[in-house]
Design brief:
The protein contains four helices and four strands, in the order H-H-H-H-E-E-E-E. It has 124 residues and is mostly helical. The protein has one domain. The protein has a two-stranded antiparallel sheet. The chain has a two-stranded antiparallel ribbon with strand order 3-4. A hairpin with a 6-residue loop joins strand 1 and strand 2. The protein is globular, with a radius of gyration of 14 Å.
């Protein structure tokens, strides 16, 4: 599943570069609240104002999963992985991986540091 989602994110990035420009990621300025599963905090909401407006501006259906902006109904348990892939793409050097859930989150969030120097995200 990870490879398939990675390919979708790659297609999403290509579409954003085509329609918005190569600096699209500069418009995603809220890494601490980034959530690909949220209509108001996802990559499209941060660029276009909300998820539906973003999909409309890009010329794709709000249920189209091909570009990694959402998941199909039976894939919903993979939003954490999809979010991690977008975080890794947008902020390649500015994230850490949670030792508990394995998801990548931006370094700006409040991490809990274990004695063995592992890091735990606030969600865990």
């Amino acid at each position: 599943m990870e490879q398939e989602l990675r390919e979708r994110v790659t297609r999403g990035v290509a579409l954003l570069e085509e329609k918005v420009g190569s600096d699209w990621s500069d418009q995603v300025d809220h890494p601490e609240r980034f959530d690909i599963g949220s209509d108001s905090d996802c990559v499209l909401a941060q660029i276009f104002g909300d998820y539906e407006s973003g999909m409309e501006c890009l010329g794709i259906s709000v249920v189209d999963v091909e570009y990694g902006f959402t998941l199909g109904y039976k894939e919903r348990d993979h939003f954490g992985l999809l979010n991690s892939l977008w975080v890794e793409t947008i902020w390649p050097n500015d994230h850490e991986t949670c030792s508990a859930c394995g998801e990548k989150h931006h370094k700006s969030i409040d991490w809990y540091r274990e004695e063995d120097f592992s890091v735990i995200c606030p969600n865990c």
